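Hi Y.,

Following your request, here is the sequence exactly as I used it, all 422 residues.
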Amino acid sequence: MTEIQILLISLALGRLILELSFHFLNAEQFKKYLHKRPSITQKVMSDQEWQRMTEYSVSKNRFSVFENLLEFVFFLLILLILYPLFFEKFDLGLEQDSLICSLYAVFFLLALQSYSLFLDYWRQFKIEEKFGFNKSSIKLWIVDKIKGVILSIILGVGLFWVLLSSYRYLSTISEFWWLFAFGILFSTQILLMVLYPKLIMPLFNKLSPLKDGSLKDKLSELSSKAGFFSKEIKVIDGSKRSSHSNAFFTGFGKFRKIVIFDTLIQQLDEEEIEAVLAHEIGHYKKGHIPKRLFISIFMGIGFFFCFSLIINSAQIYEALKLPEKAFQSFTPAALGFIIFSPYFLYWISPLSNYFSRKHEYEADEFAVRIIGGNCKLSNALLKMYKKNLSHPLPHPWFSFFHHSHPNLFERDKNISRVISSL
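Below is the corresponding structure, written out as tokens. Let me know if you'd prefer a different format.
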């Protein structure tokens, strides 16, 4: 093996060991708390609810262990065999047509992800089904997968073709071609944010206007009070696939929509839904979206700069065991970057999650301040935790590394602090 392959395997193995350690710590924590519940949990949920919540968390934890082991095996298979073999069999070098390269690249990526179909099926129809969350039929699940593949082909091939064509032209006239390439990718992401609620989301779910009534009046009044002007409040039929619940806003600028799961309307009362929506509006009013976009711009420019170095390095192509005909061509470098970069990014994910948790606290505080001391956000969170069987006390190290949200009791403590300061 080459030094690059050893480095990638070391990163992947380190990730596997760390993940298995986290899941072991989680399993031990769940086992300990199952038989000796913390007093804080006894005040808000019954023994039966606690038992079922723990069983669900244990099932997901065990499945994640299997998932991580399988992913590592496939990573080795891809790195050592499939990735170099693909470019040995197919000539996607500098002289190949851009559309042909794009088609082959996207189909190769889809083929590499095919093993995840088994994982998705097991998660949906075994774990989620066992605990009463799954509402999807096998037919609907298959149709969703087919739609997803078709959408991936259309968008993936189109974007890859644009980037490849841009590289082949721009690299001949400027050494800063990668900045223009990033600009194209970022502009496409912004465009998709606008088009997603209009064109993509309706392919999978039905979006209906929230019916006239006290709930709509309450949410409209909240939006006006918070200075969040949205033309539409939509209800999404999430219940046809799952009984999990959520609320969010989607789109960009004047195209944004407030979206509420029908399951959330069924599970919470109007004041609690108001509090959840106030939290989501808080993300907007606190500027969390632009902040995340700025970070993605900064990181994206860094990634494309690194990519520009890789694409010109014959040593890296050789170290990945690629044939000479693939050297300094866009497709092998792009696919390698897509496949292997997550094993580098994994190690900085705690930083991203730290800021995400900070934003959740800020959005909670906004919700309390805009509604007032009678804000029912804590009640809503408790109901959502219980309905979704979300364990409120995962191991702290697991939570630090993986969770983008603080746990239930951390958020409740912060909400209580804000209410007491009003």
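The mean pLDDT is 90.

Thanks again,
Q.
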